[in-house]
Each structure stands twice: as structure tokens, then as C-alpha cells.
Amino acid sequence: MFLINILGSDSAVSTTVGTAELFGDLYQQYLPRVYQYVNYRVGNRSEVEELTSKIFEKALSKFGSYDSRKASFSTWIFSIAHNTVIDYYRERSRKNKLANEIGKNPMTPSTSVEEAMDRLEEIIKLRQCLLKLSQVEQELISLKYSGDMANREIAKITGYSESNVGTILCRAIRKLREEFARW
């Protein structure tokens, strides 16, 4: 019903085509954010690509039951992503393990080798500091900064209250600053 209202058509053929086009548009819009979120949580490029693919396969198969009155698409897709990452770690029993590879290349055409090495060293230090946080803190930070989500969306995904999400994030960031300053 939701899709028919958006498409303004009652015909099954145009609804199917419209649904595919709508999902395609949403896929294009959310793929970079979902990929970045999974990359932050997993770090292994081939695994990230596989998990991102699974997330969108699940979303496509469940797209007919998506209801915009219950949650925004962003909340819905990141709930699927969140659960898929949790399943990934359960299957492999690798809790509290973040990325093994650096996701971004610290070298740009205008970056000197020294600057790139300093940046790489800072990234490695930050990742080591992140590993000292609890699993909950790591998850909330990844949703906030890699997923580019608001506290309200994070609360819907995790089941925490919005104020609790803010409090946990604030404390986690304070811990990160203190730990990073010790270096």
C-alpha cells in the first residue's frame, strides 16, 4: 500500500517496476553509508563487500513489508546492517575485533610521505584506542560516525533511549580523547 501511494498507480505491473526503481534509488543513496558502516565494523574489504551485498539482498527481499510510518528508510536499512554485522561476528566468534586494514589511503597527491606516515600512525592509534571501548560503545560510535546517523535513529536501531545513546556516546568520546592523549 505504501508503494502504491507513492507511485500513484493501482496496476501490479507499474507497481513492480516502480518498486524496483524506488529501491534502486534508495540503494544508490544508502550504499555508500552502509558500506562505510560495515567497513568500520569489519575492516576486511572482501568481507565488507560480501556483508554489504547481503544487507541489500535482505532489504530487497523484505522491501514489500517496509512501512515508512514505522521507521525511516535510513533506520530500517541500518537495523538490517546492524543485525547482519552482529550475525557475522556471532558466526565467526570474533567479538570486539575491529578492522585489520586501514580503510582510507592516507596518501593524496599533495601529501608528503611524512604527513602520510603521521596520519597512518594516528589512525592506528585511534583504532587501538577504539578497541579498549566496550562493544556497545564501539557499536554506537560506528553508527554515529560511520553511519552518519542521528541519536534518534541509533536509539531506534539499538533499543536504547535517545538520551542514553547520547550519554554513552559522550562518555565513549571522552574515554577516546583521554586514551589518545596518553599516546
Task: Detail the topology: elements first, then pairings.
Layout: H1 2-7, H2 12-42, H3 45-62, H4 73-92, H5 113-131, H6 135-146, H7 151-158, H8 162-182
Helix pairs in contact: 2-3, 2-4, 2-6, 3-4, 4-7, 6-8, 7-8
In short:
By secondary structure, the chain is mainly alpha-helical.
Keywords:
Rna Polymerase Sigma Factor, Chain: A; 2 domains; 0% strand
The total domain count is 2
DSSP helix fraction? over 70%
Distance between the termini: 56 Å
Structural class: mainly alpha
Question: What percent strand?
Answer: under 5%
What is the 3D form?
A: globular
Explain how this protein is built.
- The longest helix has 31 residues, at 12-42.
- By secondary structure, the chain is mainly α.
- It folds into 2 domains: 1-95, Rna Polymerase Sigma Factor, Chain: A (Orthogonal Bundle); 108-183, Arc Repressor Mutant, subunit A, CATH 1.10.10.10.
- Helix content is 74%, strand content 0%.
- The protein starts with a helix and ends with a helix.
- The radius of gyration is 19 Å and the shape is globular.
- Mean pLDDT is 78; it is low at 1-15 and 94-104.
